[in-house]
Specification:
Blueprint lengths: L33 E2 L3 E10 L2 E8 L4 E8 L7 H17 L8 E7 L2 E7 L3 E3 H8 L7 H19 L6 E2 L8 E4 L4 E3 L6 E2 L19 H4 L5 H17 L11 H4 L5 H10 L11 H8 L13 H11 L34 H12 L6 H8 L8 H8 L8 H7 L5 H14 L5 H6 L6 H14 L2 H7 L7 H5 L13 H10 L3 H14 L3 H14 L4 H13 L3 H8 L8 H13 L3 H14 L3 H18 L4 H13 L7 H11 L3 H14 L6 H12 L6 H10 L1
Antiparallel strand pairs: 1-2, 2-3, 3-4, 4-6, 5-6, 7-9, 8-11, 9-10
Helix pairs in contact: 3-5, 3-8, 5-7, 11-12, 12-14, 13-14, 14-16, 16-17, 19-20, 20-21, 21-22, 22-23, 23-24, 24-25, 25-26, 26-27, 27-28, 28-29, 29-30
Length: about 700
């Protein structure tokens, strides 16, 4: 592979820019950087104008993940960036398709926005063509198969309710080929739901060469994505990026490509949406040779030239669409409407499938008959997907049977289909799949349970499917009778709405462990509504409140704990008071604890409080502050770092030279000391004092 002339490395983005020479002004994260205390950066993958993508490693779940970082160098663009980030995060969180990567987490850190997604092991189609194929196009069959896979994803997106979702940036670099053979559509940064027929979708976005004219005008629609797919097919065959409305004829580069496929690409690239395929489903059926291509109208040269001058004035070679872009009128041959329910007739089977794609109830009974027959085993996966289109109780029983199918792929598709039906009857059967050996099956089952119950909770619990549950739920304060032995038990009880106390406690503990303290507080409050006097739950609530820095509430709940006179609870109460700035009360508590047990930990805590109280008193009375510093100094005459407090006391009394001498001695002897950082600040104060030593000299002079 070619190396970068500047740095000698071999990692390039889609446009050939070296990732390490920073073409986008990106602040690259170093290998080993840990984000949100959980995601370790392993290596950079790609970059763009809005950010970068990294391979990461989830330290909690012990698995690889993709980390997408979004940023903007223009402060005026921050609001747009945040909007884009939230739209993509929420959109992907709501989408479930095997061809779409799932978002598992998102957060902000240092004004950067991060999405955590499933890590895909493979290559995007740009690099596949450039590296794996050495800039040679694919064979016709491979292009057709890939286009069918993309159509499947678009069928799902374009049929979202209440509004279709458009990707709006389909291009080779956003189509990913996994090593296991899956085709994935990635980078949903420009995707959004749109209102069909709306004249107000004015955001103009897309990639030149793949975005159709209506998208540049701000009126995208589902057929806009089909235009982009046509451009992708052109690139996959020719290995040439298409110019806007002036793609080099395929026949000049690949004379071996059949007229049939050329006509499909021509139709998808029609200027007028009405001349393209009516839907992704229609395009898929034509690619699978289930339907003929239909008819379309040739774009005139006048229209092409007008568009070129308006939107792409720098393109000089734009004249006509001969070869690849020349379109002919093709007469549509209508299929006879025969054998509709005769599943032994191939034409009848195709018609049933077509009706099912459109959600026509007439297809239900034939589909059920077909899925019960081994004669249609090769179509079972497709039938499972189609049955999910119907909110009809008749489809539930056959779909439930598919949950125990020996084929893991079908076991993965069946839960998603059940989730789309909206029927909650199979929840118990779905829960059984949580012990399936296939991780993808377990995640699919949990996703379906979320569709039928509480999606947010189930999406969160999916993070723990591969984790060590025992470690996640251990607590010294909460008895094991208040949470479940397994994640599966928790989910089953949630779906059946029983043992809610244990459900709430278990969820609170998981959210607390994951650092989501607001959610943890919500669920522990629900648990306390059931058992409001449970001392262990109150204590757990107090600790969550401490993490949320709600110290006033934490103090109020501490007073409800009957056995709060134990040393550990007294220590916690003192910590709460200290956080509230109630130092005298906190000192009183720790002073009593220290008398009872003179441990190093309690001595350090009491000394910390004397110091903090002294700093607070300096605002009103230096003499009172000195009293606190002297208490810290005298707490333990044998304390190895007492010189710091002696120096501090002397400095506050104006004995600067002596203070400086003792402080230097402390810093030389304790370079790793507990108070070393404070000593550095004190030395800065000493050095910035005007005329060190003049104050005591003046005092002595005045007393003469």
């Amino acid at each position: 592979m070619e190396c970068c002339a500047q740095c000698g490395r071999k990692e390039f983005d889609d446009l050939g820019n070296c990732l390490h020479c920073n073409p986008y002004g990106i602040r690259w994260l170093k290998e080993g950087t840990v984000l949100d205390g959980r995601y370790e950066i392993k290596k950079s993958i790609k970059a763009g104008g809005m950010g970068a993508v990294y391979q990461g490693y989830d330290l909690r779940l012990k698995q690889f993940c993709a980390v997408k970082e979004m940023h903007s160098h223009d402060e005026s663009n921050l609001a747009y960036l945040k909007k884009r980030f939230m739209e993509e995060a929420k959109l992907l969180a709501d989408l479930r398709h095997n061809g779409i990567p799932r978002v598992t987490d998102y957060f902000t850190q240092e004004n950067f926005y991060y999405l955590i997604m499933d890590y895909l092991d493979g290559v995007d189609m740009v690099n596949f063509i450039k590296v794996e194929r050495d800039n040679r196009g694919l064979d016709e069959e491979s292009v057709v198969n890939l286009a069918v896979s993309v159509c499947d994803i678009l069928i799902y997106l374009h049929n979202q309710k209440p509004r279709p979702v458009l990707h709006r940036d389909i291009k080779p670099s956003n189509i990913f080929l996994c090593k296991d053979g899956r085709v994935m559509l990635i980078d949903f940064g420009l995707a959004r739901p749109v209102n069909p027929g709306s004249m107000t979708e004015k955001t103009i976005v897309g990639t030149v060469g793949y975005a159709p004219i209506e998208q540049y005008q701000g009126y995208p629609e589902p057929r806009s994505d089909l235009y982009a797919l046509g451009g992708v097919m052109h690139f996959l065959l020719t290995a040439i990026q298409p110019s806007p409305y002036n793609a080099r004829p395929i026949s000049e580069v690949r004379p071996d490509v059949s007229p049939w496929l050329l006509n499909i690409i021509r139709k998808s690239l029609s200027l007028s949406p009405d001349s393209r395929f009516a839907s992704a489903l229609e395009m898929k059926e034509v690619l699978e040779k289930k339907k003929d291509i239909g008819e379309y109208i040739e774009d005139s040269s006048y229209e092409l030239e007008k568009i070129q001058k308006q939107f792409f004035p720098d393109e000089q070679s734009f004249t006509s669409r001969k070869g690849f872009l020349t379109q002919k009128k093709i007469t549509k041959e209508h299929t006879a409407k025969t054998g509709l329910y005769n599943i032994s007739d191939p034409a009848g089977v195709e018609k049933i499938m077509e009706l099912a794609e459109k959600g026509n109830d007439m297809a239900i009974e034939p589909l059920i008959e077909m899925i019960s027959s081994e004669a249609f085993a090769d179509k079972h996966r497709q039938i499972v997907e189609l049955l999910g289109n119907f909110k009809d109780e008749r489809v539930i029983e056959p779909l439930v049977k598919m949950l125990s199918h020996p084929d893991e792929t079908i076991r993965r598709y069946a839960p998603m289909a059940i989730g789309r039906t909206g029927c909650k009857k199979p929840l118990k059967e779905l829960c059984k799949l949580l012990k399936d050996p296939g991780l993808a099956v377990r995640k699919s089952a949990l996703g379906a349970i979320g569709d039928l119950t509480d999606k947010n909770i189930m999406d969160f619990l999916s993070l723990f499917l591969t984790g060590n549950r025992d470690e996640h739920t251990e607590s010294s304060h909460i008895g094991k009778d208040l949470y479940f032995d397994s994640l599966e038990e928790l989910i089953i009880c949630l779906t059946e709405n029983r043992e809610l106390l244990k459900c709430y406690v278990h969820l609170s503990m998981l959210y607390n462990m994951d650092g989501k303290f607001f959610e943890a507080e919500d669920f522990i409050k629900k648990a306390l509504q059931i058992e409001q006097d449970n001392q262990n739950l109150i204590l757990f609530h107090v600790k969550i409140l401490m993490k949320l820095e709600k110290y006033g509430e934490a103090e109020k709940y501490m007073k409800k704990i009957v056995t709060a006179d134990t040393p550990d609870l007294q220590s916690l109460y003192g910590e709460i008071l200290a956080c509230e700035g109630k130092y005298p009360a906190a000192i009183e508590i720790y002073d009593e604890l220290y008398v009872t047990e003179q441990s190093d930990e309690r001595e350090d805590k009491l000394r910390d409080l004397y110091y903090a109280f002294g700093r607070e008193l300096e605002k009103t009375s230096k003499e009172l502050a000195i009293v606190q510093y002297e208490k810290a100094f005298m707490l333990n005459p044998g304390y190895k770092e007492k010189d710091f407090f002696e120096s501090l006391t002397l400095f506050k009394r104006g004995k600067i030279r002596k203070s400086e001498k003792i402080l230097k001695k402390y810093m030389d002897e304790n370079p790793e000391g507990r108070w070393y950082d404070k000593a550095l600040k004190l030395m800065d104060e000493i050095n910035s004092s005007p005329f060190p030593g003049i104050v005591p000299w003046i005092k002595d002079f005045l007393h003469q």
